[in-house]
Each structure stands twice: as C-alpha cells, then as structure tokens.
Design brief:
The chain is of the alpha/beta class and 273 residues long. It has 2 domains: 3-173, 3-Layer(aba) Sandwich (Rossmann fold), CATH 3.40.50.300; 179-272, Orthogonal Bundle (Helicase, Ruva Protein, domain 3), CATH 1.10.8. It contains 13 helices and 11 strands. The longest helix has 16 residues, at 196-211. The radius of gyration is 22 Å and the shape is elongated.
C-alpha cells in the first residue's frame, strides 16, 4: 500500500503513521477502531485507506435510535404482503451490503449505538457470517472489514463499548495535530480566500480553547475553518468571526459557565499578540 500516494490523493495533511497503521490492519484482515475527539479527521483517514486498498466504503452514522434492522436490512413490507418473504424483496442494510460487496463498513461513532445493535456485529467480525431470519446466511466476500470510530467517553451521548466488541478491534488513537499542520488543513478547507494572518489567528484561537481549564471541551479544527471563512467575509474581524463560530463548538466547565465567549476571545487574542 503506497501511503504517500494515498495521502496526496486524499489531501491528508500529516498522519502518515496513522495511515500506515490503519492500512496494515485492513491488509491483515483486522478491524480498526479509531478513537479521538471531534474534528481530528477520523472519517477522512478511514475513507482514504479504504479507497487506497481498492475497497468500497459503506458508511453508517451511529446514534441511540439506530436499530438492528437498519444495520442488517429488512424485507419490503408491501412486497411481503403481496408475495411473501422472497429473497428479492430483502433490502440490504449497510452491514449486509458491505459483506456482500467485500467493502469496508465504516461506522461513525459506534459507541453511540445501542448495545443490541453493537452485538449484531460480533458474528460478522468473528466468522464473516450473519444469519438473517427468512433470508438465510450472508457470508462476507473477500475484502470485508469494519472501521469504526468513537469519541472519548467524556463526550456527550457516548457510551462504552463492551469488552467482547473491543476484543475484535485494533485501536488507533488520534489526537489534534501540530499548529503548522492545522494551518495547512484550514488553508485546504476554507471556502473563501482568507489571508495567512487570518488563518493563523483562527487556528490559534481554536487551539487555545483546548488547553483552557475553564473549558470542558475545546474547539476542533472545524471551528478554525469557520472562523477563517467568516473573518474573510467580515473584513478581517476575527473576533466577531470567533464570536459566531465558537459557542456551538465549545463546552464550558460547570464551574465557569458564566465566562463569556467575548472574554475568552479577547484573552486569546491578547496572548497571541
């Protein structure tokens, strides 16, 4: 697997060691759990390696309302009423589709799914096999694998994966990248044409929220992208752009909820200058 070519084709900044680790897992027939905070590029990394390995990519977004039938599939109700449980009336879910195609099943935020849905994965991970009532066995085609992500347990609406499920995954832990690489990412992802100074300020503000003890959850690189884009439309007013972008992307610690975003931004800009 040519990691450098994959990184260039998918515009991955840095992350060469992580790309190599995920690629090695897939080539070895192992399943991968990517763990890290929001906005560190887990999805981009998974897609890049999957496509670089010449495999399809079937995505699922986990949430607490997700059901087993959504993951595996279901029979078309009107068709069943008319003709009965015929194989051609079965609508494959993402797990079944990925197994049949020999593709990578990408499960975003696996630890937000109900435990019953998580457990459906076990026979697919162990034996490459699932048994669907009234449809029969589905065996995984060559190339099938699972890459899942989870945010750290302290994030809202997340839970813990069972020991049985964790035992079927290899772990690749991701964290925020260095400041220089984050500037490169912002430069790639902005929609407008903010100046290098605006990008530098936007990245600095986002990064400072992550080390501020008054903030429980800091801003990801997406916040820096938003600040840079907004500032470019506000004649370079980074403070106003940050005031618009940060409230939905940070979570204050319970003991500092009275601290305003305006105050934070003013402090961060003073430190930077």
């Amino acid at each position: 697997m040519d990691i450098e070519s994959i990184a260039q084709a998918h515009r991955i900044v840095g992350r060469r060691g992580d790309l190599r680790a995920v690629g090695a897992c897939l080539l070895a027939g192992r399943n991968v759990l990517l763990e890290g905070p929001v906005g560190v590029g887990k999805t981009a990394l998974a897609r890049a390696v999957s496509e670089g390995a010449g495999r399809g990519f079937v995505r699922v977004d986990g949430d607490s309302r997700y059901t087993e039938s959504k993951l595996v599939g279901h029979f078309d109700p009107p068709g069943v009423l008319e003709k009965g449980y015929l194989p051609e009336l079965f609508v494959a879910g993402p797990l079944t589709a990925a197994m049949q195609k020999g593709a990578v099943l990408f499960i975003n935020e696996l630890n937000r799914m109900p435990e019953g849905v998580q457990n459906v994965l076990l026979p697919a991970l162990d034996e490459g096999l699932i048994v669907i009532p009234r449809f029969g066995e589905v065996r995984a085609a060559e190339g099938f694998g699972v890459v899942a992500t989870q945010n750290p347990a302290e994030f809202v609406a997340t839970g813990h994966l069972s020991e049985a499920l964790l035992d079927r995954f290899e772990l690749v832990a991701l964290d925020y990248q260095g400041e220089g690489e984050e500037r490169q990412i912002v430069s790639q992802q902005v929609r407008g044409a903010p100046s290098p100074d605006i990008i530098e300020q936007a990245v600095s503000i986002a990064r400072q929220t992550r080390s501020d003890p008054r903030i429980r959850r800091g801003a990801s690189v997406r916040a820096a992208v938003a600040i840079a884009d907004l500032a470019a439309q506000l004649d370079g007013d980074v403070a106003l752009a940050a005031k618009l972008a940060l409230p939905t992307r940070i979570e204050m610690a319970a003991t500092h909820e009275e601290v305003s975003v305006d105050r934070l931004i003013a402090e961060y800009q003073k430190k930077k200058s």
